[in-house]
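Journal club prep — side note

Before the paper discussion, L.F. wants everyone to see what a predicted structure for a comparable chain looks like in token form. Sequence:
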Amino acid sequence: MRIDEYVEHDGLGLAALVRAGEVTADELLDTALAQVTATDEVIAAVVHVQEGVARKAIAAGLPDGPFTGVPFLLKDLGGEAIDFPTSMGSRLYEGYRYSYDSELFVRLRATGLGTFARATSPEFGIGATTEATVYGRPTRNPWNRDHVAGGSSGGSAAAVAAGVVPMAHGSDGGGSVRIPASSCGLFGVKPTRAMLPDGPAAGEGWAGMAIEGFLTRSVRDTAALLDATVGPDVGAPYYAPAIEGTFMEAITRPTRPLRIAVSTHSFTGEEIHPDCVTAVQHAAALCESLGHHIVSAAPTIDIRSFAHAWANIVACGTQLTVRSRLASLGRSLVDDDLERVTGLACELGATVSGADYLEAIDVVHALGREMARWFGDYDVLLTATLAEPPTTIGRMASDRADGWSDFLDYRLNHVLPYSPFTALANGTGQPAMSVPLWWNPAALPIGTHFMAKAGDDLMVLQLAAQLEHAAPWFHKRPPL
């Protein structure tokens, strides 16, 4: 299949061609692998290719589902699958193999997807860029290779934007789906907390702030992926509100008129980049033209206190990940095991007591209740996804020796000013999405961020479909 034909279809469109006999799953895999080769030197997004696993699955007969035969990538973090080794973006875990399949992967496999590789991630998912040293080179933005693809699902975003696959797996603990979606001109959603399964090996990630997700070029692909994976797995510690109906059905219906609060400042009151202001204003005007009520408003919250609590929780989680690997290897840490930011996170984690950890969770939960009350007056909060366009390679690289004094400095004084909006929804558990509605004069994508009440995931997808219909983005392609 020619690449120009391949990229003209989303995942559901390619699956339709397979069902019609116009193309085979093997031919689609051939095209995806050719795209890996063609783009590898430019974006460096795909790792741990398992062509034999994919060919064997095709030969055995892929399940009959909505995505039968469509090539797919798992993020190189999570998405546990026996047949797909991982490094988790870390030299410490290089060559690691899971002993089980995650429930998410089991559900994805049932859709007929042809998973064949993983996509790059920063070490253990920490950071807003994907420049892990284990891969030997940074993952670059297909729109401009001097800029980052975002993080932590940066490889997935770069691969989708570059036409390697029509969609890919991601995960989001502080914006890790939405930041790369914004950076690469894609659609990315963080569902309500516990909407998707975490098992069987975990009940939650980062005290419930992390959740699985997807990077897609079309809203309907995301809707179909959510329909295939939504719902708790056996033994889940808690449950999200039940979805009434399906996401695919929901996106065929117009959403009711919404009351949308709009802000062009960060939660600290600071100004954001003019390109991001323009993107928000454009999105607000589009929403108003669609019949929604626009109000200039923003919650008054202590975002730095939340960011400090987030850092303590993530530092403890990182320390546990490192400790578990070292125990399995039967050795102590050596100098080149970890990147600098990861080492700083472990240093912080070692100072966080049990009481400190519970206090951090209390801070996060209190913010969730505060935001739930604030959303009593609004349906949606509209902001930029990032406070500036996707930054340049190297500026936020986690192995920089000269960038920050400790993990809190890294998060509060470097990441937070760059990404002040996305992590809030992780703390509160609310659904949020980044929608690609604006490109700046330098042809870099500038995503706009929509956050809604917990459990309003169907409405979020409805609004996304409405925006997609009014201002289509699918045929915007990077120069790559």
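L.F.'s comment for the group: The domain at 3-470 is CATH 3.90.1300.10 (Amidase signature (AS) enzymes). Keep this in mind when we get to the figures.
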